[in-house]
From TrEMBL, chain A:
This is Electron transfer flavoprotein subunit alpha. It comes from Methylobrevis albus. FAD binds at residues 201, 227-228, 241-245, 258-265, 279, 297-298. Keywords: Electron transport, FAD, Flavoprotein, Transport. Pfam families: ETF, ETF_alpha. PROSITE patterns: ETF_ALPHA. GO terms for molecular function: electron transfer activity; flavin adenine dinucleotide binding. InterPro entries: DHS-like_NAD/FAD-binding_dom (IPR029035), ETF_a/b_N (IPR014730), ETF_a/FixB (IPR001308), ETF_alpha_N (IPR033947), ETF_asu_C (IPR014731), ETF_asu_C_CS (IPR018206), Rossmann-like_a/b/a_fold (IPR014729).
Automatic annotation (TrEMBL), chain B:
This is Electron transfer flavoprotein subunit beta. Residues 23-211 form the Electron transfer flavoprotein alpha/beta-subunit N-terminal domain. It comes from Methylobrevis albus. Belongs to the ETF beta-subunit/FixA family. The electron transfer flavoprotein serves as a specific electron acceptor for other dehydrogenases. It transfers the electrons to the main respiratory chain via ETF-ubiquinone oxidoreductase (ETF dehydrogenase). Keywords: Electron transport, Transport.
Length: 310, 249
């Protein structure tokens, strides 16, 4: 069998999510071809060719793919699908947008957000915010799969796959790019960070969130996360949200500050290796999943932690 | 312009679900059911567009068991004009839902279809994208802002790292994210009025759609549990433990 993996990239470089989804794609057992669709995406394609286990890289380089709009990218993947038994992508916002569109074009029921490959047609995936794990067998001849990247290790370099150009397909002209506002910062990305410091509603304001959470994150070189309550209250931007409806993460160390631990938040971080919770309510559900709990006032304790770290 | 809003009846988001001991699924007996929260946001957005004078009718549609009528009545009580129930028992996967919705869209000819980005039961996040594909329409997923204009709609989308705005040709499909709006509560008089609003009942066969699942559920299990750890007494102790015991610093 042969698998087509849709790469996550920003044209200039390949995202870590691609390496992780590659691990799942290789677990299907067949050859893996990586599709890099973008505009000026040569560097990303070169990076994909170096990944261990990749048999071939396909590059579709056209203006129409610059912003990863779902309609043209889905048409491109569907045009290539005939030669593949499975189409795989990391469950990033771009692929979550595109892949179900591909699945419908191919009349395939997609398997979303898989956390394990049991067999080439059988997968585990979380349902009900991760409160149950379903094992499903896909009966469609072709498989369309998105991969929860936090549960798969990243495949490293070590390959030198040939890079082939594929022709762009006609843009269906259903949508056009107007603009984007990407938050600029030097911190690691949430989904690939080794350490995450997250803040909850107990922070009380956007100012306090900045004053308390960011110094600790900066000291640790950590990514910054937030609970849905903190995002809803406007203390943190939505792309920092960790949880069922935000990002799912599994860092080495997750530090939850003033987060009570609602089911929907736990769904996004309970696979972290070590969880630390600081909360003034010693009954908070977050302590039931925390390896180390510290009960008390975050406004006093967090600066103390920063000081202790030196 | 008419707006179609598909809504799903799901386990209420406050319910802590239990996996059946025999691994056959999730225990749904006597569990509180509600409208999928993202679909509530979709109904609210459709109503706001209508109230702004940019739409003339809001039609809610649900695909599910007879009790999904209650979900439709919730939408009608919020202010939708009429409802369509496509009665199907058992699991209906997103692909089959999208096929039924396509058939309804071809009948109803809406200018916009707004639905939740994902249902909080199966967490699939597929239906809107599949529906857009089957209709050959544009899609604006994970919307945090929707601005309809003449013949187009601008959708601001929540993406990894920030926001992206796209312009879609109408008709189009929009899926909602959390920050799009805060749904209204239905008032008692509106709940009473909703009981008299038209609600049509159909079957999947009426639309010629086969709803047989394509995914076979082999088993459903509890996730691996996580044990509570220890409480430490001070910031100094915490940092020491992280350095020496956990080895993560």
């Amino acid at each position: 069998m042969t698998t087509l993996l849709l790469a996550e990239h920003d044209n200039a470089s390949l995202k870590d999510a691609t390496n992780r989804a590659l691990t799942a794609a290789l677990a299907l057992g067949g050859d893996v071809h990586v599709l890099v669709a973008g505009s000026g995406c040569g560097p990303a394609a070169e990076a994909a060719a170096k990944l261990s286990g990749v048999a071939k890289v396909l590059v579709a380089d056209a203006d129409g793919y610059a912003h990863q709009l779902a309609e043209p990218v889905a048409d491109l993947i569907a045009s290539l699908a005939g030669g593949y038994d499975a189409i795989v992508a990391p469950a990033t916002s771009a692929a979550k947008n595109t892949l179900p569109r591909v699945a419908a074009l191919l009349d395939v029921m997609q398997v979303s957000d898989i956390t394990a490959v049991v067999a080439p047609d059988t997968f585990e995936r979380p349902i009900y915010a991760g409160n149950a794990i379903q094992t499903v067998k896909a009966t469609d001849a072709k498989k369309v799969i998105t991969v929860r990247t936090s549960t798969f290790a990243a495949t490293g370099e070590g390959g030198s796959a040939p890079v082939e150009t594929v022709a762009a397909v006609a843009d269906p002209a259903l949508s056009s790019f107007v603009g984007e506002a990407i938050s600029e910062n030097d911190r690691p990305e949430l989904t690939s960070a080794k350490i995450i410091v997250s803040g909850g509603r107990a922070l009380g304001s956007a100012e306090k969130f900045q004053q308390v959470v960011l110094p600790l994150a900066d000291r640790l070189g950590a990514a910054v996360g937030a609970s849905r309550a903190a995002v809803d209250a406007g203390y943190a931007p939505n792309d920092w949200q960790v949880g069922q409806t935000g990002k799912v993460v599994a860092p080495e160390l997750y530090i939850a500050l003033g987060i009570s631990g609602a089911i929907q938040h736990l769904a996004g971080m309970k696979d972290s290796k070590i969880i630390v919770a600081v909360n003034k309510d010693d009954e908070a559900p977050i302590f039931q999943v925390a390896d180390y709990g510290l009960v008390g006032d975050i406004f006093e304790l967090v600066p103390q932690i920063v000081k202790e770290l030196g | 312009m008419k707006i179609l809003v598909p809504v799903k009846r799901v386990v209420d988001y406050n319910v802590k679900i239990r996996v059946k001991p025999d691994g056959s699924g999730v225990d749904l007996a006597n569990v509180k059911m509600s409208m999928n929260p993202f679909d509530e946001i979709a109904v609210e957005e459709a109503l706001r567009i209508k109230e702004a004078g940019k739409a003339t009718e809001v039609v809610v549609v649900s695909i599910g068991p007879a009790q999904a009528q209650e979900t439709l009545r919730t939408g009608l009580a919020m202010g939708a004009d009429r409802g369509i129930l496509v009665q199907v028992d058992g699991t209906v996967e997103p692909l089959a839902v999208a096929k039924i919705l396509k058939a309804i869209a071809l009948e109803e000819q809406p200018g916009l279809i707004i639905l939740g980005k994902q249902a909080i039961d199966d967490d699939c996040n597929q239906t809107g994208q599949m529906l857009a594909a089957l209709l050959g329409w544009g899609q604006g997923t994970f919307a945090s802002k929707v601005v309809p204009a003449e013949g187009t709609v601008d959708v601001t989308r929540e993406i990894d790292g920030g926001l992206q705005t796209v312009q879609l040709k109408l008709p189009a499909v929009v899926t909602t994210d959390l920050r799009l709006n805060e749904p209204r509560y239905a008032s008692l008089p509106n709940i009473m009025k909703a009981k008299k609003k038209p609600l049509e009942t159909k079957s999947a066969a009426d639309y010629g759609v086969d709803t047989a699942p394509r995914l076979t559920v082999v088993k459903t299990a509890e996730p691996a549990g996580r044990q509570a750890g220890i409480k430490v007494g001070s910031a100094a102790e915490l940092v020491a433990k992280l350095r020496q015991e956990a080895g993560v610093l």
